[in-house]
Amino acid sequence: MTDAAPDREAVVDLGAVRRNVETLRATIGTEHTIAVVKANAYGHGAVPVARAALAGGADRLGVADVSEALELREADIAAPLLAWLHGARPDFTRTVEANVELGISTLDQLDAAIDAAKSTGRVAVVHLKLDTGLSRNGLSADAWPTATRAARAAETAGLVRVAGVFSHLSGTSPDADTAQADALDRGLADAARAGLDPEFVHLAASGAALTLPGTRYNTVRLGISIYGLSPFSDREPAEFGLTPAMTLRSRVVATRSIPDGQGVSYGHTYRASGDTNLALVPVGYADGLPRQASGAAEVWIGGARRPVAGRVAMDQIVVDVDGTPASVGDEVVLFGDPATGVPSAEDWARAAGTIGYDIVTRLGSRVRRTYVGE
What we know:
CATH superfamily of the largest domain: Alanine racemase
Strand order of the largest sheet: 8-7-6-5-4-3-2-9
Mean pLDDT: 96
Radius of gyration: 24 Å
Structural class: alpha/beta
Order of helices and strands: EHEHHEHEHEHEHEHEHEEEEEEEEEEHHE
Shape: elongated
Number of strands: 19
Helix content: 25-40%
């Protein structure tokens, strides 16, 4: 980092995103790939990541909220785009006008899509979602026959096109995921009996797409893996040929020495076991570092991994740098590509008792995103 660099910076390697998508497509081999860029592309930046994923060979994009989809359209991203999580009383008028495809989880949502088609004079493109066992959103097995018949009637009337049928796995076990695939197969048979012929069938996200070929169908939704993180807490990204795209870095803003027995940070949960040197780093839980990782996480400083001393505070952490050279202005890497020796997002996740998804998506507004590898 230079003297002019921000104290809190997430460097996102768009080349890594592109290469990850290329690797995943070659490994998984489905006809279609939906790159999931919801939640600001898992904290990486939706617009630049969407472009990188498309450059890597993804042919479709997926988001949760309609607002996320419209942001991409406003950035002149014209690729096929699916939004699947909606409010209590959705109005899909702008969505249909923007040629955004809609995930449909209730009969009311289907009615709203039909209403939008009537008001805009455009066909609403929908993907019907069947709840196959996650028990979250999606049409129930009981409601599914009614929904497929209603969708077919709207399709015949020229109001709707059922482009896809999909569901979401629980990831409980391979057997449980296979049972959900069986439930989706039954739902597809019901849809066919209603006269529907969806072009896209998708069930697997990153984890199942990489390990359970029977859940791939002709389309997969790839989220965490395109960012170079593993969908499994016990497997590293490198096992799948992936490279983490984000490096979170800061710099030392102060150093000090403390005597044996001196406590550090709130509650003095850390005490020096001898005369110790400390470095102050201006990144805290307001910036996304999990407070639960207090005293357990490490950072890269002075060419070595060094422990966080004491509790993560709102704006800062203290690092034990005893025996490691550290001066004001030195770069500190909180997480990045472990192949370079630095801690990974998964390392922070393990320290906090959470998952890598949580670490990268929680970064706060004070953290500047810088893009490289475009």
